[in-house]
Automatic annotation (TrEMBL), chain A:
Locations listed in the record: Cytoplasm; Nucleus, Nucleolus; Nucleus, Nucleoplasm
Required co-factors: Mn(2+); Mg(2+)
Start and end residues of each RNB domain: 463-793
A single MF term (Gene Ontology): RNA binding
Name of the protein described by the UniProt record: Exosome complex exonuclease RRP44
Domain PIN: 61-178
Quaternary structure, from the entry: Component of the RNA exosome complex; within the complex interacts with EXOSC4, EXOSC7 and EXOSC9 of the exosome core complex (Exo-9). The catalytically inactive RNA exosome core complex (Exo-9) associates with the catalytic subunit EXOSC10/RRP6. Exo-9 may associate with DIS3 to form the nucleolar exosome complex, or DIS3L to form the cytoplasmic exosome complex. Exo-9 is formed by a hexameric base ring consisting of the heterodimers EXOSC4-EXOSC9, EXOSC5-EXOSC8 and EXOSC6-EXOSC7, and a cap ring consisting of EXOSC1, EXOSC2 and EXOSC3; DIS3 associates with the base ring of Exo-9.
TrEMBL record, chain B:
Keywords from the UniProt entry: Acetylation, Cytoplasm, Exosome, Nucleus, RNA-binding, rRNA processing
Organism placement in taxonomy: Eukaryota, Metazoa, Chordata, Craniata, Vertebrata
GO BP terms, alphabetized: nuclear mRNA surveillance; poly(A)-dependent snoRNA 3'-end processing; rRNA catabolic process; rRNA processing; U4 snRNA 3'-end processing
Descriptive protein name: Exosome complex component RRP41
Cellular component, GO annotation: cytoplasmic exosome (RNase complex); nuclear exosome (RNase complex); nucleolus; nucleoplasm
Cell compartment(s), UniProt: Cytoplasm; Nucleus, Nucleolus; Nucleus, Nucleoplasm
Assembly description: Component of the RNA exosome core complex (Exo-9), composed of EXOSC1, EXOSC2, EXOSC3, EXOSC4, EXOSC5, EXOSC6, EXOSC7, EXOSC8 and EXOSC9; within the complex interacts with EXOSC2, EXOSC7 and EXOSC9. The catalytically inactive RNA exosome core complex (Exo-9) associates with the catalytic subunit EXOSC10/RRP6. Exo-9 may associate with DIS3 to form the nucleolar exosome complex, or DIS3L to form the cytoplasmic exosome complex.
Limits of the Exoribonuclease phosphorolytic domain: 21-152, 155-219
Organism: Scomber scombrus
Recorded family membership: Belongs to the RNase PH family.
A GO MF label: RNA binding
Chief place of localization: cytoplasm
Length: 951, 245
């Protein structure tokens, strides 16, 4: 049967266009139920005994939610208890249109076999298709379509089997419910239904608050001005009376925020917003419209630290006072453009992690939730399990923020575990840094190769057989995702053949499938202390792709012919099959090289590599590559409790730099090759030169010790760092290098067609990319694919050649990379805290790294730990010491003593756990002794308590 | 959200067809009395009128005369009202010139031109309503018109467009699908012998996929040929009833 669908659409130029589309109705769309005998379906999704024990429905039943239920209650639908659900095409399309994240989650649920979610294509079914009636809105039409489909289902099921199986329509829309009842359909409100479920009371807390419930929660007093409708915002932005920007709440002051307005080109401004009324319910990261206040109302950002400590009740009087405290008259010059939020263009709410503040009233079910991120306001939620959640980290999603409520309303999503617990805190920092870390979905896993896996003859035919070569891998201890291996051998003509073999991940991850998309979205593997968040499923990362010893593995090889002076004579790339002869750690490899009695193939190969690496490194440094330094620490974990028992800065061995050298060489060779082949769409990595002003601190630091630092070029900087030494201060050079690292810019991925500055400043290379770690970086997978196409080993696909898509991908990779670094740092910080918690108070030597107006920042080289020693106390009872800060030095005089950069100090370290959400390391000065500032050295706990390390 | 979902997880396309299903084809032959042959063909919402004159003596410049076969002259045009936006379409714009040329090549391969040396066959095709697959609809309509004119052909020429979405070939694309960034391919086939009269593709597609796409196109063309055959037989029956034989 044929129906024509006609609708009117507005074109981009503003005209009105009539679009006519065909719409075929079919009679071969099946119902998907096991019970049904009529439908000629091959496989069924919905079960015969669809049992969810409910007070309302004592019979087996299928659920049929409408669009709003899916959009708002996806948290509940995801629960394993909810099964046998019919998702109509109408609903699916509406969800797709309204919210991409919810759509993706819904699709994931549908793919999960155990959930028994069935998609019914009702829009193309002959009996369930309806046409929009004159005067009917699109929404009403869709609601009606849902009702018609529900009706059809209930009749269809009745006809095929007199079993008591029924269909239950779930909707929160009152009008829809009434109309459905008229049609004699089984219909419940979502809350009603979930509350009726026996033995699943915890599901109730997941419920998002619907519109009707909101009213009763808060007083009817209007606290905030109304948000303008979108149409008025749009005209306002067009006419220039409003500005559009991203709302960024202040970390230190809950009554202050700034809106970042992206202008033309470089011309972007920040608008300051102060006061609850002006903030007008905007939440961090929302896209908002702001209106500038008249110039005489402009204010300066306050330097006061204010935290929202208000109790659950609306304590207005106190707040007004706080707001007054903000309006300290500021100098004219310090005033900034100030405005107020008039409307929200796009909410950017995500589930937030944090902790619950229990309500004073014991029986109350409404509580305030304090997010871990200080920039997010507190959220009011309703839960009956408050007592058990009190000491836990939980996740909460915001549902809405009515204008008469002081706080947004939200609902409980899930509990992450008890606060302070290691796993919980890890989860929190992953969530807060937006690191995707859920288990891989079924759809993703379905693209893994079937086990047992073996190299097929077809694979073999396409690849070069390099199994006979003495290949070995060198990695840090405990590494299971080995993505690189090396070999070196002498050729008959006296030259050396050096090969870098990289795991061929792109063989397993084919472009465009779910596995590929997941890896692209994760972007990188995140290494936390004692935990690894994989980018690809473990089967690949630790087994099939990992170049372990004595198994045959697929590799992508980069093979050079070099002479003994490490000059490259020939470069060759090939897909290959290798068989690693040994997987060594850096220390083992070093021992083999040093042990003169050993003379086997592996050792000879290692020695050859080491010799070449030294030459390569020298050449690189001559060209002006920087050797920078940052302290990286390693925790020694207790093997059972996984608590850190010791902490040590990472040591570097010759073999580290040996592997690094060849990886750099491979990356550069591949970058050049892919760029030559695809000048428009090669994925490269650049490291921009820092602006000269970045070096100020380094120059000043050098000057304080009478050392001249040149920063005109990377080469000059490297040279002056090399000669910068001070007698009797061996650590000085390392400190300088640490400072120099802080001056650098971030290296970023980019697409060669979108940029023209390719230079990598730190490595002093004109072109660079990432090729050598495809197991843990997605960028490398793309580079592998490009290179494979370049040598004709694999086929291409449209997205690979599209520079705009690739550029978008680069942005995601850069973002993920940055976030993973932050997460790593946060993880190290957390473990440092754990370590100090177990150690109690310690006294250590340190160096002054920076001098600030009211504090010095001290680095403890032993732990790679940085901390701040404040000289002004927040405690008003105590008089602040006399501080004189000199910008030029920079120096800070505290009473009689003057601190310079790199001064040696002694501090005591302890853990401040007064705020359980934000624990931090506290440092206090011991030496030099300044009366009234420094503290007496506390007794260090006896060493006997410390567990013995068996190393 | 960006774009339309061209192929749902359940395997349905935007308009409710499955991947291999054609649109509804309806056709009538002999719609005009004055012309030697004519046909009207609808394929979904794409509607085309084809008219054939000839074979007749060469008109215009005699220099184009071929001494061993007939010259085929094709002209393609689109009605001003054929698309959503009304647009004047002057003759001889690049798109229609190209299309005319493609039609000419297609029919030179199918019509037995060697039977009519030093003569000319004119094929005029007009798109009355456009909803994707214009070329194929023109070919199919023109085939019927040529048959109506009684000009011998080696076989029906059947054409179909095929697109490639999510590793699946979609047969007979409609306008919404053509616009959705799909690499599409148009194929004109002489179904009985399986010879290709014309193959056209101007999008990017990896050669690994070409074979599956061609196969899908051929199947689709054979489907079209069945429908056309039925139309021709039906028409002949009607005509023979009228003439009383």
């Amino acid at each position: 049967m044929l129906k024509s669908k006609t609708f009117v659409k507005k074109t981009r130029s503003g005209g009105v266009m009539k679009v006519v589309r065909e719409h075929y109705l079919r009679d071969d769309i099946w119902c998907g139920s096991e019970v049904c005998s009529e439908c000629k379906q091959e496989s069924t999704v919905l079960q015969r005994d669809a049992c969810m024990e409910s007070n309302l429905c004592s019979y087996p039943h299928y659920l049929l939610p409408d669009t709003n239920v899916v959009l708002h209650q996806i948290d509940v639908l995801e629960d394993p208890v909810i099964r046998n659900v019919i998702i109509l095409q109408t609903v699916l399309q509406e969800v797709r249109h309204r919210s991409a994240p919810v759509y993706k989650r819904l699709k994931d649920i549908i793919h999960e076999k155990e959930k028994h979610f069935y998609t019914f294509t009702n829009e193309h079914h002959r009996e369930t298709f309806i046409e929009r009636e004159p005067g009917e809105s699109a929404n009403d039409r869709n609601d009606r379509a849902i009702r018609v489909a529900a009706k059809w289902y209930s009749q269809h099921l009745k006809a095929s089997d007199s079993d008591r199986l029924k269909v239950v329509l779930l909707t929160n829309d009152r009008g829809n419910k009434e109309k459905a009842e008229e049609k004699a359909l089984l219909v419940y409100k979502f809350e009603e239904y979930i509350k009726s479920l026996i033995a699943n009371t915890e599901l109730v807390d997941h419920l998002a608050l619907s519109n009707d419930d909101k009213n009763e929660i808060s007083s009817s007093k209007v606290l905030f001005p109304e948000h303008l409708p979108l149409s008025r915002i749009q005209t306002g932005i067009k006419s220039g009376s409003f500005l559009q920007g991203t709302f960024r709440a202040s970390r230190d002051n809950y009554l202050e925020a700034s809106v970042f307005v992206q202008g033309e080109e470089e011309d972007s401004t920040e608008v300051l917003i102060q006061g609850l009324q002006n903030l007008n319910r905007a939440v961090h990261q929302d896209v908002v419209a702001v209106q500038l206040l008249p110039r005489n109302e402009w204010v300066a950002p306050s330097s006061v630290v204010l935290q929202d400590e208000g109790k659950a009740k609306d304590d207005n009087a106190e707040e007004e006072e706080e707001e007054k405290a903000l309006r300290v008259s500021a100098a004219e010059a310090a005033r900034k453009p100030t405005g107020k939020v008039v409307g929200i263009i796009k909410r950017n709410w995500r589930p937030f992690c944090g902790m619950l503040n229990l309500s004073q009233i014991k029986e109350s079910t409404r509580h305030l939730f304090t997010p871990a991120d200080r920039r997010v306001p507190r959220i009011r939620i309703e839960t009956r399990q408050a007592a058990s959640l009190a000491a836990q980290r939980i996740m909460v999603a915001i549902d809405g923020w009515p204008k008469h409520s002081r706080y947004p309303n939200g609902h409980f999503v899930r509990s992450l575990g008890s606060a302070g617990d290691k796993d919980t805190e890890q989860e929190v920092l992953l969530l807060e840094h937006d690191v995707p870390h859920q288990a891989f979905s079924q759809a993703v896993l379905s693209f893994l190769p079937k086990m047992p896996w073996a190299i097929t003859p077809e694979d073999m035919a396409k690849r070069q057989d390099l199994r006979h070569l003495t290949v070995c891998s060198v990695d840090p201890p405990g590494c299971t995702d080995i993505d690189d291996a090396l070999h070196c051998r002498e050729l008959d003509n006296g030259n050396l053949e050096v090969g870098v073999h990289i795991a061929d991940v792109s063989h397993f991850i084919r472009p465009g499938n779910a596995l590929d998309k997941e890896a692209a979205s994760r972007g990188t593997t995140v290494y936390l202390c004692g935990k690894r968040i994989d980018m690809v499923p473990e089967l690949l990362s630790s087994n099939l792709c990992s170049l372990r010893s004595n198994v045959e593995r697929l590799a992508f090889s980069c093979i050079w012919e070099m002479n003994h002076e490490a000059e490259i004579l020939k470069t060759r790339f090939t897909k290959s099959v290798i068989n690693s002869k040994a997987s060594l750690t850096y220390a083992e490899a070093q021992m083999r090289i040093d042990d003169t009695s050993k003379n086997d193939d592996i050792t000879k190969s290692l020695r050859g590599l080491n010799k070449l690496a030294k030459i390569l490194k020298r050449q690189r440094i001559e060209k002006g590559a920087l050797t920078l330094s940052s302290l990286e620490v390693r925790f020694h974990m207790d093997s059972e409790t996984h608590d850190p028992i010791d902490l040590q800065t990472k040591e570097l061995m010759e073999t580290n730099s040996m592997v690094e050298e060849f990886m750099l060489l491979a990356n550069i060779s591949v970058a050049q090759k892919t760029f030559d082949e695809f000048s428009e769409c090669a994925l490269l990595r650049k490291h921009p030169a820092p602006p000269p002003s970045n070096y100020d601190i380094l120059l000043k630091a050098g000057k304080s010790k009478h050392v001249e630092i040149h920063t005109d070029s990377a080469k000059a900087l490297a040279d002056s760092l090399d000669v910068a030494t001070v007698d009797g201060f061996p650590y000085f050079n390392t400190l300088l290098r640490i400072l120099a690292t802080r001056c650098m810019m971030q290296a970023v991925y980019f697409c060669s067609g979108m940029d023209n500055d390719f230079h990598h400043y730190g490595l002093a290379s004109p072109i660079y990319t990432h090729f050598t770690s495809p197991i843990r970086r997605y960028a490398d997978i793309i580079v592998h694919r490009l290179l494979a196409v370049a040598i004709g080993a694999d086929s291409t696909y449209p997205d690979l050649m599209d520079k705009h898509k690739q550029s978008a991908l680069c942005n995601n990779l850069n973002y993920r990379h940055k976030m993973s670094q932050y997460a790593q740092r946060a993880s190290v910080a957390f473990h440092t805290q754990l370590f100090f918690k177990s150690r109690g108070i310690l006294n250590e030597d340190g160096f002054v790294l920076f001098v600030r107006k009211n504090a010095i920042i001290v680095l403890i080289p032993k732990f790679g730990l940085e901390g701040t020693v404040f000289f002004d106390s927040k405690d008003k009872a105590k008089a602040n010491p006399n501080l004189v800060f000199d910008e030029e030095g920079p120096t800070l005089a505290v009473e009689q003593h003057t601190f310079h950069i790199f001064d040696k100090v002694k501090v005591t370290i302890s853990l401040d756990d007064s705020n359980i959400q934000h624990q931090k390391i506290r440092m206090a000065l011991i030496d030099p002794v300044i009366p009234g500032v420094s503290v007496p050295a506390p007794d260090v706990e006896p060493q006997a308590k410390k567990p013995k390390l068996d190393r | 959200m960006a774009g339309l979902e061209l192929l749902s997880d359940q395997g349905y396309r935007i308009d409710g067809r499955k991947a291999t299903e054609l649109r509804k084809v309806q056709a009538r032959m002999g719609v005009f009395a004055q012309a030697d042959g004519s046909a009207y063909l609808e394929q979904g919402n794409t509607k085309a009128l084809a008219v054939v004159y000839g074979p007749h003596e060469m008109r215009g410049s005699r220099s184009r005369t071929l001494h061993d076969r007939a010259v085929i002259n094709c002209q393609y045009s689109m009605a001003t009202f054929s698309t959503a936006e009304r647009k004047r379409r002057p003759h001889g714009d690049r798109k229609s010139t190209e299309m005319s040329l493609h039609l000419k090549q297609t029919f030179e391969a199918a019509v037995m031109t060697q039977l009519y040396p030093r003569s000319q066959i004119d094929i005029y095709v007009k798109i009355l309503q456009s909803d994707g697959g214009n070329y194929s609809v023109c070919v199919n309509a023109a085939t019927l018109a040529v048959i109506d004119a009684g000009i011998p052909m080696r076989d029906y020429v059947c054409a179909c467009t095929v697109g490639f979405v999510d590793e699946t070939p979609l047969a007979d694309l409609c306008y919404a699908e053509e616009g959705g960034g799909v690499s599409s391919l148009a194929l004109a086939l002489l179904p009985r012998g399986g010879q290709i009269a014309l193959l056209q593709m101007d999008a990017r597609l990896h050669q690994d996929h070409l074979e599956t796409l061609m196969e899908a196109a051929m199947t689709a063309c054979k489907g079209v040929s069945k429908v056309l055959d039925e139309v021709v037989r039906q028409h002949l029956q009607e005509v023979s009833v009228l003439t009383g034989e």
